[in-house]
Design brief:
- The chain is globular and about 45 Å long.
- It has seven helices and six strands.
- The protein starts with 5 loop residues before the first helix and ends in a 14-residue tail after the last strand.
- The protein is α+β, with helices and mostly antiparallel strands.
- The strands form two sheets. A four-stranded antiparallel sheet has the order 4-5-3-6. It has a two-stranded antiparallel sheet with strand order 1-2.
- Strand 4 and strand 5 form a beta hairpin.
């Protein structure tokens, strides 16, 4: 299936890292040199809410893959722009500019929607609008296939938490994993 492998890599490694995926299928990674203060500031600004939606990513990703393989001009320009956003986000995170990172994350989400407008049900789009009007700086959908969780970067977590809960979404509290996959000895 035409799915990315970034999720598997970050799950295995943990922390905040940058990846370079080469055409020969090799992958390089480096931990981002982020101070503990910035790390906690980022962690504290993120809220995750379960949407209640779940569906397969296959049809969405097949369309994107076909357009990429056919060198569709709009798709390639969109993907190049997203790649540039990744480089910018690296610098924003290292420098601790969480608000700008949130705005960039929102721009990234808008670009992703242009690639696959049908990937996001209208109800989830409504949740985005509500969140952005109530304390969120940026948002994106995480989870394969246009469902799963909405991740917000929030300026006002209390207001965002209140309004999302009132709209029936359940918050998932989390912390970044720094270790990744490891073997427990007993």
């Amino acid at each position: 299936e035409p799915v990315g492998k970034q999720d598997q890599y970050i799950s295995a490694l943990g922390g905040l890292s940058e990846f370079t995926f080469h055409k020969d299928d090799t992958v390089e990674y480096n931990r981002l040199p982020i101070s503990e203060d910035i790390f906690f500031k980022l962690e504290d600004s993120i809220l995750l809410f379960f949407t209640g939606y779940s569906r397969s990513a296959s049809s969405i990703l097949v369309t994107q893959d076909n357009q990429s393989n056919e060198s569709d001009e709009n798709m390639i320009a969109n993907l190049d722009s997203v790649k540039e956003m990744g480089l910018i986000s690296r610098e924003l995170l290292i420098n601790g500019d969480i608000n700008q990172y949130g705005l960039l994350m929102q721009d990234h989400w808008n670009k992703k929607l242009k690639r696959s407008p049908d990937m996001c049900p209208p109800q989830i789009k409504k949740y985005f609008d509500i969140g952005l009007a109530n304390g969120a700086i940026g948002a994106k959908l995480i989870g394969a296939g246009g469902g799963g969780f909405i991740m917000f970067i929030a300026d006002d977590k209390n207001q965002l938490r209140k309004v999302m809960t009132e709209n029936g979404l359940k918050e998932l509290r989390f912390k970044f994993d720094q270790i990744g996959v490891h073997v427990l000895q007993h």
